[in-house]
Each structure stands twice: as C-alpha cells, then as structure tokens.
Design goal:
The complex is a heterodimer of chains A (224) and B (197). Chain A is built from eight helices and ten strands. With 224 residues, chain A is an alpha/beta fold. In chain A, α4 crosses α5. Helix content of chain B is 75%, strand content 0%. Chain B starts with 13 loop residues before the first helix and ends in a 6-residue tail after the last helix. Classes of the chains: A alpha/beta (224), B mainly alpha (197).
Chain lengths: 224, 197
C-alpha cells in the first residue's frame, strides 16, 4: 500500500505539490494533469527520488525518508526518455546492471536477463549497442531492466510520450498485463481504460480521485 | 554494428574465451612489441583478428577514423624525418589502435568492468569504491553516443533556424542539454539502486 500524508513539495521557491493526502491500494492507478501540475513529482515521491518538503510518504510500511534504498528495490521507475535510463553500452548488460548492483549470484543474473530479453522481444539484440535501438525498443529495454529486478510496484512517468502509436499500444498492453501494481503518469488518456483509479492533478493539488471515466471527464473540463 | 567504443562481437574464439585480465596484460605486451617492431607486428595482428573471426569490414572500421590523422602526420613525418621512420610511426599507431580494438571486440563491457573493479580494489583503503571506478568507465562509454546525439540534434536545430555555423549558438544549448542529461542520468542511476549501498 502507498500512503501519502499531507505532502507538500517545493523546488527552491516554487511549490509543486500542495497538501496531498491519498492512500493507494489498487492494482492499476493512473495519474493525469496539465504540464507542471505536479504529477511527475508525485510519481517521484513513490520511490523516494523526491523526498517531500512536508508530510510523509510510505510504501508497504517503509518510509521514503528512512528506507529509500529498500523502497527502490521494491518500486521500479520507468522514465519518459529511455536514453536517460540506459546506463550500460549493450542491451543485455543494461538489463543486468541493477541485478549486479543488488549483488545477485551470477547464474541468477543470467537467468533473469535471458527471461527479460525474451519477454520483451530483445533476445536477438542482447549484445547490440543499446544506443542503436529504435525508440520503441529502447523503452522496452528500460521496462525490461526495471522488471528484471522483480519490483512489487512499477511507476511510469509518461513512458509513451516519445513513442509512435504502435509502440504506445505495446507499452500500454504490457503495463496492463503486469502482475505488479502500476502507477502510470500519462497524457494518453486511452491508456487508462480498465484502470482501477485515476488521480487528476492541477496546480500541485489533487483535485479529482475517481474511476477512469469520471476522472478523465473532469480532466477534460479542467482543460477547457 | 557499432563504433570503436563499447562494441562487442559475440563469438567463441580463444580470444573471446580469454578472461579480460590476461587479455589486458597481453595487450600491454603487444603494444610494446608493436611500437618497437611495427613492420613485423602487422602479420600477427592480422592473424589475431582472423583467430577472433572478426569480419574484415569490421576490422577495417576500427582504424578507419584514424586515416585522416595518419595521412597528415605521415606526410609531415616523411618530410621531416624520412619515409622509413614515418612508415614505422604510422604503422605502430595503427597497430596500437587495432590491438586495443581487438580487446573491446572480444570482451563484454561487464567482464571488463568486473576486472577493473577487481584491480581497483586496493583503492578502497583510501576511500575509493572499486565499483564506482568501474561504473565511471561504463558511464564514460555510454556518454559518447549520448553526447553525439545532443550535438547532432542541436546542430540540426541551429541550421533549421538559420543560425548558420555560429559557435555560440551551438555551444550554449549543447552545454545546457548536456547538464540536463547528466541530471536525468543521475536520477536514473539513483532509481536503479546506485546510491543504495
């Protein structure tokens, strides 16, 4: 369970989140809002990338201030631009990166890398330079690298913004099929069909918290 | 395929199976020999590429970026110190790059990083984490295509907006985007567990 209690956050003199309180226990959670509404900061709170200026964030009982390391092993994060997330020069080595940092046995690393590459259709590219993959393949690699660590929650910050329609659908379907809890920040409202809950942010405030239909309708009204 | 940095060609040759440590030691010895006997070393270097079953096109691609420099320095040296010495220096430079490339062509970056982390282990006594040294190297390799992309896209934008070849219009956005990319990469490293030990 993700618990966010009375959280406000400021970057220097700009307040980006204002007194947000929400408890998330659902399997599929969407987050939408205008640019600069605070949704990316909200996503970063969940795995401790951002520690709140005020208030408290906990994931499955772990506090992001005290247990950020433990939380990051449970909460995977997928960024908008996979180029910023890919660290190692080749595809297989990038999937192995977090696993090696977690000091997993070599055999286990190999097993997970092989499984992840197979699942995301990247087996034929295992030894290829990661920077030569297409945009869609790079995002698949970023997802593969996150899921290979077997997180219990996956937070995605606009993972389809740089993708074409086919890859957007592929990522959307994949996120939908994951057994993990997914928190998806997106501007692509159709990706939220079938989600359990959608949060709408406006000017740093959580203004709507509802099922996808009413939440998206409210968001559309906000944007007119 | 890829450029000279970070490229690995999968294979099962003796060179592929050789661990990175002995391979790096062998490289050091081979470099000394190549610098000392450049004209004699050419044959063995070609033989090593054949042993590793590296395609000819890829082997030539390793030294192709050097040709312009070698041509200029070769001509200069021929004028100043004679063609025999110029041929020796040019050959030794080309062979050195070919040998170093052969190591990267037959060694996975992860295996190389493990070796570097092992070699850097004594640095722990003075507070330097060996894994950080290896990570630094990996990031250096990773940043080459990232920076090339940034430079390419800024240059494109500059030309599209009619800024011509104004160096200031190139340098400022490149620096800003590079700093942003560095920030994003740092955030991704944290998200991927780098600061958790």
């Amino acid at each position: 369970m993700i618990e966010i209690e009375r959280v406000s956050h400021r970057f220097i003199d700009r307040t980006v989140l204002r007194d947000v309180t929400v408890t998330l226990a659902e399997h599929r959670i969407g987050v939408i809002g205008a640019n600069g509404s605070g949704k990316s900061t909200f996503a970063r709170l969940i795995n401790g990338l951002v520690r709140p200026s005020e208030g408290r964030v906990s994931v499955d009982g772990l506090d992001t201030r005290r247990d950020a390391g433990k939380i990051r092993r449970k909460v995977g994060f997928v960024f908008t631009d996979p180029d910023n997330q890919i660290v190692m020069p080749t595809v297989a080595e990038d999937v192995a990166f977090s696993l090696r940092r977690a000091k997993l046995p070599r055999e286990e690393v190999r097993r997970r890398v092989t499984a992840a590459l197979e699942r995301f259709g990247l087996s034929d590219h295992a030894d290829h330079p990661a920077h030569l993959l297409s945009g869609g393949q790079k995002q698949m690699l970023a997802l593969a690298a996150v899921l290979a660590t077997e997180p219990t929650t996956v937070v995605c910050d606009e993972p389809t913004t740089l993708l074409d329609l086919r890859n957007t659908r592929m990522v959307g379907t994949l996120l939908h099929q994951l057994p993990q809890r997914v928190v998806l920040v997106t501007h692509q409202l159709d990706l939220l069909d079938g989600y359990d809950r959608v949060l709408v942010f406006d000017d740093g405030r959580l203004v709507v918290d509802d099922r996808p239909g009413p939440a998206v309708a409210a968001y559309r009204r906000l944007m007119t | 395929m890829t450029g000279p940095l970070g490229l690995y060609v999968p294979g099962r040759s003796p060179l592929h199976r050789c661990p990175p440590g002995p391979k790096l030691l062998g490289l050091a010895v081979a470099l000394v020999l190549a610098l000392r006997y450049p004209l004699l070393a050419a044959g063995p270097v070609v033989a090593l590429y054949a042993l590793a079953r590296i395609p000819v096109r890829l082997a030539l691609a390793q030294v192709r970026p050097l040709w312009g420099v070698l041509l200029v320095t070769g001509v200069f040296q021929t004028i100043t110190i004679g063609w025999e010495r110029a041929a020796e220096i040019t050959s030794s430079l080309m062979l050195s790059v070919a040998l170093a490339s052969l190591v990267t062509l037959t060694t996975r970056v992860s295996a190389m990083l493990d070796t570097i982390a092992g070699v850097a282990r004594p640095l722990r006594r003075i507070g330097i984490e060996p894994d950080r040294v290896a990570l630094l190297l990996a990031l250096t390799i990773r940043c080459v295509p990232l920076l090339t992309d940034i430079l390419g896209s800024v240059r494109e934008a500059q030309l599209a907006r009619g800024a011509g070849r104004n160096p200031l219009a190139l340098v400022v956005p490149v620096i800003i985007r590079t700093l942003r990319t560095a920030d994003a990469l740092g955030e991704a490293l944290t998200a991927r567990g780098v600061d958790d030990e």
